[in-house]
Each structure stands twice: as C-alpha cells, then as structure tokens.
Amino acid sequence: MKQTVPALIMMLALAACGGGAANQTKTEEKQEVSAATGATYAIDTTTTAVQWRATHKGGFAPRFGAIKVTDGNLIVDNGAITGGNFNVNMISLTTDPASVTEAGKKSTDLDGHLKSGDFFDVEKYPTAKFEITSVAPYDSTKQQSLVPGATNLISGNLTLKDSTLNITFPALVSVNGNEVTATAKFVIDRSAWGISYKTEGSPENWMISKDVEIGFSLRADKK
C-alpha cells in the first residue's frame, strides 16, 4: 500500500459548508500541468462518489448532494501517482431530499436553481475539470486534514465555469497493485471562481456562506 492521490474535482455546489475559513483549502493561480510518466489507471465511475455540502451563514439550513464523475485517468509510477485528470458532469448535480426539510420545498427545485445562470449555468458550462499538478507526502504540522489518516497532499487545477484555479488538499491514498483508492474532504471558497448569487455584495448572496465542502471517494483500475 503506497501513497499519493488523484484528485478530484470537481464539481461543487453552491454555498457553503460549516467548515469555516480555517479549513479552506489552499487556492492559487493556475499552475502548469507537467507530463507524467508511468502506467495508466482508469477511474471507475460506477464506484467513484463526489459529494457536496453547503449552508447559509452560520451553518444554517445545510444542503448536501452528489455530482457524477464521467471519465478520467491516473498515472502511477513505482507505486506513486504522478499525474491524472478527470471530468465532472455538472448537469448531474443533485440535492439529497433529506437535506430539504422546509414545507412545500423540493430538492429538485434546488437542483434547478444551482444549475441555472444564478450559479453554475450548466447549459453553458456542463463540465468541471480537475488536473493534477503535483503530489507530495502529507505533513500534519503544515496543513489540517478533514480526513483521518491522510497520506498525501494533492495539488491540481480545478476548472469551474470559465475560471481555473489551483487547489491543494490532503487525501488518504492507497496504490495497491492494479487498484488505486483515494478519499478526501476539503473546503473551497466559491467566490474565488466567480460563483455568486445575483451580485457579490447583494443581501441574497451574503446570506449564503461562501464555503463549499467537497468530499470524494475514488477508485481507479489499471488498464
């Protein structure tokens, strides 16, 4: 069992998680994607799961759901991930009905709102993309992990709508023979990608937390 991780994604939802700014992942300008060497592992889209969680200010009215990964590959050399990428189908974004408890409201209504031009505008931007730019050992003294037992620090370019930024987050990764598994959970600031409801300073947008929690469990098999 070795280390390193792919990354994800991507994908996310609109508002925010209760993680708070202290748990936000490191976000920088887009980085160059280096050529990776090694064997190719195809991401198993039937077992790979991507979740999102969002709230209003103060952690109120949590909403959560899932988004589907459509395809992707990881590159593994000498038991370690050296690169990879994957695509997320933003049209597949769904809200878990269990998170919508208000009378008269449906999860499908929120689905439509998140997919509209108010947020992700999926008709114009149907795909989110993640490309790994570096993988390093995880050091708990330098960055907090929301996943116990993190082994690696993953950096990659996350593209949402027409904006691409580089994010870095801890992950628990295992490279074992013909299979790679990875688990991660991290928080991003949606506004960094220009995702705002109405206008940045509007009362409606202010009521929604900027933090979005992304979680994923990923499996990839050697081709």
UniProtKB/TrEMBL annotation:
InterPro entries, alphabetized: Lipid/polyisoprenoid-bd_YceI, TTHA0802/YceI-like_sf
Ranges for domain Lipid/polyisoprenoid-binding YceI-like: 40-221
Organism domain of life: Bacteria
Coiled-coil features, chain-numbered ranges: none
TM annotation in the entry: none
Signal peptide range in chain numbering: 1-21
Cited PROSITE patterns: PROKAR_LIPOPROTEIN (PS51257)
SUPFAM superfamilies: YceI-like
Pfam families tied to this protein: YceI
Tagged with keyword Transport: no
Keyword line: Signal
Protein name listed in UniProt: YceI family protein
